[in-house]
Design brief:
By secondary structure, this protein is an alpha+beta fold. The chain has one domain: 2-Layer Sandwich (HIT family, subunit A). It has helices at 24-27, 66-87, 133-146, and strands at residues 29-32, 36-40, 50-54, 91-95, 110-116. The chain has a five-stranded antiparallel sheet.
């Protein structure tokens, strides 16, 4: 993982921690390749919490090419396997958000790879709506024609 030389930071990826001025992409990287960079989240929701970012500055998932999206998820898979081996968590949460309405707070595409245990206090409200089957079919049709 990574080479002998410090990586070139992703274009316009400024994720310095205002608490102490560190650049997590340089000091806590766990993986890097041509398209992605994985490093420790400075907030550490749980021990081992890693951020996977795409190297070119792109804001959301829909801005990525299919190859960039595939590279991001290949790195997520690699990090997840390493977290499983290193921490043996009860589970993992992979989180990616887009836009303010989707809870995105950093305007650069990234994913959280979060080791989990049942009593860690992490929550996600998921208010199920349970629409009828005909409404689901209508929504699916709307998505199909928009591709």
């Amino acid at each position: 993982m990574g080479g002998c030389c410090p990586p070139t930071p992703p274009d316009d990826l400024s994720l310095s921690d205002p608490r102490d001025g560190i650049n997590p992409w340089l000091t806590t990287r766990v993986h890097e390749d041509e398209l992605t960079l994985a490093f420790m989240d400075v907030g550490q929701v749980n021990p081992g919490h890693v951020i996977v970012a795409i190297r070119p500055h792109l804001e959301t998932l829909v801005d990525l090419s299919p190859d960039q999206a595939a590279a991001a998820f290949r790195t997520v898979n690699r990090v997840a396997r390493a977290l499983e081996a290193a921490f043996k968590p009860e589970g993992l949460t992979i989180l990616q958000t887009n836009g303010a309405g989707g809870w995105q707070t950093v305007p650069h595409f990234h994913l959280h790879v979060l080791p989990r245990c049942s009593n860690d206090g992490v929550t996600l409200t998921w208010p199920r709506k349970n629409p009828p089957a005909d409404e689901l079919a209508r929504l699916a049709g709307q998505i199909r024609v928009a591709r």
